[in-house]
Amino acid sequence: MATVTTTxxxxxxxKGEKITMxxxxxxxxxxxxxxxxxxxxxxxxxxxxxxxxxxDTLPVTVEEMIYHGRAVVRGCxxxxxxxxxxxxxxxxxxxxxxxxxxxIMKETGAGAVKLEGGECMAETIxxxxxIGIPVCGHIGLTPQAVNQLGGFKVQRETERLLKDAEAxxxxxxxxxxxxxxxxxxxxxxxxxxxxxxxxxxxxxxCDGQVLVLHDMLGLFDRFRxxxxxxxxxxxxxxxxxxxxxxxxxxxxxFPGPEHSFK
Length: 262
Ligand code: KIV
Hints:
The chain has 262 residues and is an alpha/beta fold. It has two domains: 6-231, TIM Barrel (Alpha-Beta Barrel), CATH 3.20.20.60; 233-262, no CATH class. The protein has eleven helices and eight strands. It has an eight-stranded parallel beta barrel with strand order 1-2-3-4-5-6-7-8, surrounded by seven helices. β1 (19-23), α2 and β2 form a beta-alpha-beta unit. The N and C termini lie far apart (45 Å). Bound molecules: 3-methyl-2-oxobutanoic acid (KIV).
């Protein structure tokens, strides 16, 4: 079972092999994702929303990303683990970006970091790549800029998006996440850049697809974007199991003799 690396992903694009990416935030799910041969586990700052319950990703800290990142890395043998640089850990200065990305790599053992932004982040991406930190870009709807974008909206400025994608690729990123962009625009970006594109709400023309784990497994009920396909309803199953446990304890049927010591 060959491990996935930043360079093997570029080779997959060249061969026309689709790439799978799912977010992961803890050890048990990292093992399940890895054993399902998901190519990339993204420790996304979406952890702030789907695990910690914040309204958006802005409050997430570097320490929180390191905590979740370490748990995921411990559960992985094959997948490439990418960790999000959280809001304000890389925007102030390149020195800051180097320090925080370096800390995340060193303290988690992850294979790469991801940061949001196009042309305006090219210099930062180049600086990180130059010191040996692989970077995945993220353009289109960039959730850390939700207040600037006026909400979680589809991004349609073709020229801007193409420029952003080209700038991120030219700066040395090994892959690019494209979020909430019409399918024709992301297909055009995918043709234009040599690095793999991984879409979320960006149509079938990307080189790969990413979904948020809790959305696709039915573990987050506050909202579900229209582009998400829900593959399971684990929330309902967990709720059934917990209700059964509660009923059995209260009516005295659990624990039975097989769960007790003589
Ligand atoms: O944080 C995250 O989960 C992400 C995905 C939406 C790509 O960045």
